[in-house]
Structure to design on (99 residues):
């Protein structure tokens, strides 16, 4: 009888405790910057699945995707990314940062 009580009360608690460790843990998103071609970056912008885009004085453009991944490329001319975003219908109201 005592054995049945033990199994019916303690065993479920042990299982819940073990399960919580795996359910609650998620692999963190790595914010490593991945360098891609300018054409790849433009195509990704036009899909609209990003959080923000920004350009630097050295013509580096960084794109933060919805999953946190960061892509970067060199734009051929300064402000080329501005024209891409301006002509993108899926990019409305997305943050655009510039130095």
């Amino acid at each position: 009888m005592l054995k049945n009580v033990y199994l019916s009360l303690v065993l479920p608690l042990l299982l819940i405790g073990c399960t919580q460790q795996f359910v609650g843990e998620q692999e963190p998103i790595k914010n490593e910057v991945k360098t891609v071609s300018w054409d790849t970056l433009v195509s990704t912008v036009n899909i609209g699945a990003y959080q923000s885009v920004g350009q630097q004085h050295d013509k580096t453009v960084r794109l933060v995707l919805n999953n946190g991944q960061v892509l970067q490329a060199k734009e051929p001319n300064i402000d080329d990314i501005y024209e891409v975003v301006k002509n993108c219908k899926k990019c409305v109201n997305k943050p655009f940062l510039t130095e």
In short: Residues 55 and 61 are 4 Å apart (CA to CA). The longest strand covers residues 50-55. Strands lie at 33-35, 50-55, 60-65, 70-74, 96-98. Residues 33-98 form a domain with the Signal recognition particle alu RNA binding heterodimer, srp9/1 fold (CATH 3.30.720.210).
